[in-house]
Amino acid sequence: MKFFKFIPGLLLILLLHSCTSSLNTTELSANGETAYKAGNYEASLIAYEQIIEKSESKGKNAKGPVYVGAGKAALELNQIEKARKYLEIARGISYSSPDMYESLVRVYKIIDNLSKEISALETYRKFYPQGEKISSINSRLFETYVESENWDSALKLWPEVESQAQSNVNLLSGYLIVNKNKENLSVCDKIAQQILKIDASNIPALEWYAEKYYWKAENLYLSEMKAYKEKRTQSQYNKLLKALEIVYPDYRKSRDYYLKLYKIEPNKDYANYLGNIFTRLDDKEKADYYYKKAK
Asked: What are the tens digits of pLDDT across the range 63-85?
């Protein structure tokens, strides 16, 4: 039964192919564009490939828009390698258009070629700063800068994505990661707080606070314990006690963040931090439990 349902669709494509074979390049190009806009990507690709076959059979390249049209249609049909081939041919013959670079961005993202994706994004930005897709291009370029750990470029681009990032957790998380690596600590606090108001389970924001309070407590604990061991006076002991009044609340804050993180994603790093924290809080049973989870 499925075989007979398939036949009309196959006949339609064959009919389109036979009809287009007698059309000239201008008509084929118009048909390809019309079919694409109507969502008939199979017909669009057939029309464009007719032009490509005619041109290449004469030892020539078709025009750039034809390769881009074929690439876009192939991309919508999830024929990624064919889309890539046509789009890269268009670029190789020095053709340029916003559609071409936007489509190349999509292709390179699908095949996970980050360096080529960044190149296509940057080229779109350079030549089409007023392009229809510039907002999404800027957003994706910022994300790729974060992925590639290009912190300075991400910071430079941020003002152009900041307005659309106010309710976008992915962009805000990326900005937090950038500022964390650039050690802009006051900015991190502000962004992490903003993120958690939108998404209380956001991992980068929770990690920021978990690490912040842990190292604040740990560094103070270690420095004051070292000072007391070196100079065991009543005055130094009093200083240690005063420091512990700050240390233990910060350990507990860090503990709460790490417990939440461990519940979301029970990985060994979180478990190890929890083991250390419970050791400092003198809870051996829980410390042993999390140390075992960290192994």
From this structure: 999 999 999 999 999 999 999 99
Helices (H) and strands (E) in the chain, counts: 15, 0
Interatomic CA distance for residues 97 and 66, integer angstroms: 12
What is the CATH number assigned to the segment(s) 203-295? 1.25.40.10
Close Cβ partners of 197 (under 8 Å, ≥ 6 residues apart): none
Fold equal for 1-95 and 203-295: yes
pLDDT band at 22 (very low <50, low <70, confident <90, very high): low
Gap between the Cα atoms of 270 and 218, Å rounded: 16
Distance separating alpha carbons of residues 254 and 214, to the nearest angstrom: 5
Cα separation, 207 vs 234, whole angstroms = 38
Q: What percent of the chain has pLDDT over 90?
A: 87
Name the residue ranges covered by the structural domains of the chain: 1-95, 119-199, 203-295
Alpha helices in the chain (DSSP H): 2-20, 25-37, 41-57, 64-76, 80-92, 98-110, 114-127, 134-147, 151-165, 169-181, 185-198, 203-230, 234-264, 268-280, 284-294
Looking at the domain covering 1-95, what would its CATH class be?
A: mainly alpha
Q: Average of pLDDT values for 197-221?
A: 97
Residue 113, amino acid? N
Six-digit token string for 4: 């007979």
> Cα separation of 104 and 115, whole Å?
12
Please tell me the pTM assigned to this model: 0.84
